[in-house]
Fold alcohol dehydrogenase.
Amino acid sequence: MYSPCSTIYTTTLPISYHTNNSSDLFTNHPPKKIQIRRSIVCLSSSIKMSTTAGQVIRCKAAVAWEAGKPLVIEEVEVAPPQKMEVRVKILFTSLCHTDIYFWEAEGQNPVFPRIFGHEAAGIVESVGEGVTEVQVGDHVLPVFTGECKECAHCKSEESNMCDLLRINTDRGVMLSDGKSRFSHNGKPIFHFVGTSTFSEYTVVHIGCLAKINPLAPLDKVCILSCGISTGLGATLNVAKPKKGSSVAVFGLGAVGLAAAEGARIAGASRIIGVDVNPDRFELAKKFGVTEFVNPKDHNKPVQEVIAEMTDGGVDRSVECTGNTEAMISAFECVHDGWGVAVLVGVPHKDAVFKTHPMNILNERTLKGTFFGNYKPRSDLPSVVEKYYMSKELELEKFITHEVKFAEINKAFEYMLKGEGLRCLIRME
Ligand code: NAD
Ligand code: ZN
């Protein structure tokens, strides 16, 4: 079993830090209010971490200096968290395909130099003014889209598209002052989707952090902070298949296979996996996928192949590829009258989705989602409990590779080659 106590104790020191007076040692976390075991955990972390609160931390980060060029491990400065911000010591991170698109910057706007990374887990090092929800030593998952809890979206049961903190891939600075908290030799480095987890320390808005059960192993639940919750929620919260129904999943990477797991949990009887990479099919059997279609094996559109297999179309489909053709197929392969298709893949910035309006008139529904419609602060802690801690969802099978932080470029190679699902990057 993962031990939060020993992990905090051994991992809280940054590479170098400035001295600080000890007066704020307990201001963030009075030990008298907490129970013995937790107090040991938090006391040790407070002692270690309070030395850096309010100070610039120098630590290692993987910097993307230019589009498509290998990341370089550099020593960077991480400024203290400002109002409503939290500085987090990242312990584990992993690579999602969204990082790749913005690093390649072929179909996306280039913003460089930048620190990528948005799927991760860590521990609160210090908090900025106004932050009361988390304390030094808390275990947290940063999320690329936030929840202010005050706007119309946050108050709506139907939306997670927070007005203030929704995903913004072009902004490379913090909201409060329009500045970056990262610098290298005094020059700013841009953030990515408010998380920038390819750094030993990062600064995140409190609305983009989920505080989770300290007993949850961070080297597993880190993948719930993007890909797995996204796929799972796309099926369970958005597509909502009925028991016994048929579901097609386009793209059998980690996000798609999490969508397939969602279909399994919902009791779907047929789960049809669609991918152009045949290596995915053997792997996908472990995730409840019952049938496979490789569009390259057919000389007609894959939506027609699926319609023939299912007597007119599947009840639900979830697209997790980012490819526009696959998005159109995912929509056109659902049954008329009741079929629902959900788009998850991040498209090229100039992409156009084209279908005949009659496909919609025929009572098909097209939806889309970010982060599986989960509200990060309110829902993610219970996703950890309900699916991982209760053993409903085995996160271990998604983690097919593991590398040290210094070898982060290998994680990029695996994903570019379509090898494996998630590569865990250990920061130490
Ligand atoms: P991945 O690269 O591991 O998996 C993508 C899979 O899609 C691969 O197996 C690939 O072979 C397959 N594929 C590509 N083109 C295809 C096509 N035309 N037809 C069928 N299969 C095709 O990526 P991932 O990390 O699982 O992410 C999947 C997608 O989800 C990406 O576009 C990513 O940016 C997006 N994403 C969206 C959200 C969100 O909130 N909406 C969150 C995370 C990831
Ligand atoms: Zn992601």
About this structure: The CA atoms of residues 271 and 289 lie 5 Å apart. Residues 2-43 form one domain. The mean pLDDT is 90.
